[in-house]
Inverse folding.
């Protein structure tokens, strides 16, 4: 699935800058002002034009949100029996840890192939190994630093340095994101419909609505597949943007790749959880935690993942064992790949700088 912006209207002037439409709408009001009217005060004109204060307010609100989250995490950490948690971590058998590490490596390897779909659709000439390296680095940064840093900004930086245009990078990124969440829709739809999670009594939620939500998610995924299979033009317009759809076989490949990736992720957590929990329960809670992390915009879902698991499963197993499994999961799935990605990124930057300096050295 690829995206490209619609052509500009014929009436638009080439020199038109972003926001000029807004200025044209304001022009009649200015022209209609009495000739003797003086200039507006600076503060008033800033408000009328949507001045520069709003970005600062947004940053302040974001900072306040993270301060509140950090305070809540700090207070919660003070109530945890950390001796129990560390004892549970030390009690993991080495075969279990090795199996979890293998699954964690497999899911990162699989996700690294997502951008190969974009390579196929954009027809760029980068090598498969190069594409997979870029995807691995960006995904590890995305997990630990947030989607804007890893998933978007770093992808544009690395791919543009490799010679791809912004349009190509946008199409690669869009297809990768759709692939990731398409499998989420399918798996969440299946577990919510056929294996709904038994919620603790402290959570007041209409459990009868969970299968309805599951069927809605399955319907959304099925709609995507139907459109990819039926649409002749393979182009859909959404809010002024043309979306080029893949063929049905490629869409089915997206579903298979994404479902496999989410299942591998859940497999890592499942291996580290007490045996009282079934795989479908772990999968359900992990999917819920993933959405909660996206909504809160907390990098790496720090504290969000743990809060969701404790809230939904602490009535089944001791909290210390839950936290032990999640901390080990973070180490294997987040921190170890992030350390490898940082090393790869630094090596890539060093190689690029030495390569750029070669013409200067040869010319001396």
């Amino acid at each position: 699935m690829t995206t490209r912006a619609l052509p500009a209207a014929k009436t638009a002037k080439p020199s038109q800058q972003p926001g000029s439409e807004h200025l044209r709408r304001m022009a009649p009001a200015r022209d209609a002002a009495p000739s003797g009217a003086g200039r507006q005060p600076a503060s008033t004109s800033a408000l009328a034009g949507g001045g520069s204060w709003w970005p600062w307010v947004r940053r302040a609100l974001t900072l306040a949100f993270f301060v509140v989250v950090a305070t809540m995490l700090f207070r919660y950490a003070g109530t945890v029996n950390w001796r129990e948690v560390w004892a549970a971590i030390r009690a993991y058998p080495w075969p279990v840890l090795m199996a979890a590490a293998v699954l964690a490596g497999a899911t990162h390897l699989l996700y690294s192939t997502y951008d190969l779909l974009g390579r196929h659709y954009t027809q760029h000439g980068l090598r498969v190994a190069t594409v997979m390296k870029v995807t691995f680095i960006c995904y590890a940064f995305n997990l630990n630093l947030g989607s804007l840093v890893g998933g978007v900004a770093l992808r544009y930086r690395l791919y543009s340095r490799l010679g791809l245009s912004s349009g190509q990078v946008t199409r690669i990124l869009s297809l990768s994101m759709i692939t990731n969440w398409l499998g989420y829709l399918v798996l969440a739809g299946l577990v919510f419909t056929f294996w709904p999670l038994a919620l603790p009594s402290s959570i007041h939620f209409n459990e009868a609505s969970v299968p309805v939500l599951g069927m809605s998610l399955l319907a959304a995924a099925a709609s995507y597949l139907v459109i990819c299979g039926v649409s002749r033009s393979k182009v859909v317009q959404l809010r002024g943007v043309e979306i080029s759809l893949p063929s049905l076989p490629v869409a089915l490949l997206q579903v298979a790749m994404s479902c496999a990736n989410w299942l591998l992720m859940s497999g890592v957590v499942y291996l580290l959880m007490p045996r009282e929990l079934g795989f479908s329960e772990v999968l359900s809670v992990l999917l819920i935690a993933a959405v909660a992390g996206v909504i809160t915009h907390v990098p790496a879902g720090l504290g969000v993942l743990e809060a969701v698991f404790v809230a939904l499963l602490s009535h089944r197993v001791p909290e210390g064992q839950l936290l032990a499994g999640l901390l080990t999961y973070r180490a294997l799935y987040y921190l170890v790949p992030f350390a490898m990605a940082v090393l790869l990124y630094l090596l890539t930057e060093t190689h690029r700088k030495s390569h750029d300096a070669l013409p200067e050295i040869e010319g001396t």
